[in-house]
Every structure is written in C-alpha cells, then in structure tokens.
Write a structure and sequence with these properties.
heterodimer, A: mainly beta, 6-stranded mixed sheet, 5-stranded antiparallel sheet, globular, B: mainly beta
Chain lengths: 110, 112
C-alpha cells in the first residue's frame, strides 16, 4: 500500500463548481498534513496546512480525520486559475522528508 | 528576498558526463532535499540532509551524489552511472519541525 494515496483524476469541472479531493495515508504516526498546488512545468507551492479542527482559506477548506487517516480539500466556486495538480502531503516527524502523493489533476473549464 | 535558488534552469548532459545542479537557500533552514519528477509522475526523493555535513539516501539515490559543506548549499551531482537522467529536479528546504517544505523553481535536465 502506498504511503499517501490520491485519486489521479483528471477532474474536469465547469467554472463555479464545487470540487472535493480526497487523500488517505497509511502511517498512523503522521503528524503534519499539507496540500500543495503544482502548475504544469512548475515547482509545487504550499496551498495550505491541514489542522485537526479543519481550516478554511477563502474558497478552500481542508479537513483531517485522524481516525480514518483521511484528508480532504474542498474548492468552492472554481476559477479557471484553479486548474493545476493538487498534492496531498504528510509529515511523520522531525525533519524527515515529507511524503507526497502523486497528485490529483484539476481542469476548470469555461 | 529570502528563498531557494536553483541553477541552471535548463541543463544538457552528454553521455558519460557528470553534471552538478546547484541549490542555495538563504532561509537559514537546517534541512534540505532533492527530488526528481518525471512527466506525469509524482516526486521521488533522491537525497536529503538534516544538518550540515550529514545526508541520507532517499528512495532513488543510485547514480546521484550530494554534499552539504555549508548550511546554505546542497548541490546534487548526476553521475554517468545514472542511465536515465532526463527529468525535472527540485530542491527544497525546511526550517522548524512539522513545517512545510519550500521548493526552488527546479532544473530541467536532458541528455544530448
């Protein structure tokens, strides 16, 4: 079983739609969780951290379920500029490397 | 501005040649990382360093070497032993524990 699993997509949605991405992780000792965004031929950039209580940043909402080892990202009112690959990322401890999922591709269509 | 600088942006390697990719950060981060990304694929860890003068192999270290003589710098050498070096190489650093990693803008390596 892969450490971090994501549906690869692609998700093709119209502008204004709400879209949700899910991610599962296998290591129950994981401590920190993040969503990154990667545009085509660019480096990954931090979108948001994910906290146990859930957190929101504008149109983006992230949630964590430690019992089910499950992370989600909800994007409301999708924009064309949201088209990218979204990476689910998990940290075990200390400065050990983050573990990246393979990403879910989103295309927002006019 | 604080950040991570990778150079060059594009690099071409001849058969049998070693090439070195540069990664410099002025964020005062202890930990640095090298990843490889192939088209349509996820990131794969090559090497990482948690402190100066120390580094560990990642999942795909064969054919690569690194050094960490200074906190700011973590160069990656792609040796001739790496038979399929064409990829997008990403360097990252991290400060405090449980914080996210920050990436440089990458180096694209191709074989001539």
């Amino acid at each position: 079983r892969k450490e971090v699993e994501q549906d690869p997509g692609p998700f093709n949605v119209p502008e204004g739609a709400t879209v949700a991405f899910n991610c599962t992780y296998s290591n129950s000792a994981s401590q920190s969780f993040f969503w990154y965004r990667q545009d085509c031929r660019k480096e990954p950039k931090l979108l948001m951290s994910v906290y146990s209580s859930g957190n929101e940043d504008g149109r983006f909402t992230a949630q964590l379920n430690r019992a089910s080892q499950y992370i989600s990202l909800l994007i409301r009112d999708s924009k064309l500029s949201d088209s990218a690959t979204y990476l689910c990322v998990v940290s075990h401890s200390g400065n050990t490397p983050l573990v990246f999922g393979k990403g879910t591709r989103l295309s927002v269509i006019a | 501005d604080g950040g991570i600088t990778q150079s060059p942006k594009y690099l071409f390697r001849k058969e049998g040649q070693n090439v070195t990719l540069s990664c410099e950060q002025n964020l005062n981060h202890d930990a640095m990382y090298w990843y490889r990304q192939d088209p349509g694929q996820g990131l794969r860890l090559i090497y990482y360093s948690q402190i100066v003068n120390d580094f560990q192999k990642g999942d795909i270290a064969e054919g690569y070497s690194v050094s960490r003589e200074k906190k700011e710098s973590f160069p990656l050498t792609v040796t001739s032993a790496q038979k399929n070096p064409t990829a997008f190489y990403l360097c990252a650093s991290k400060g405090q524990v449980n914080q996210p990693q920050h990436f440089g803008d990458g180096t694209r390596l191709s074989i001539l």
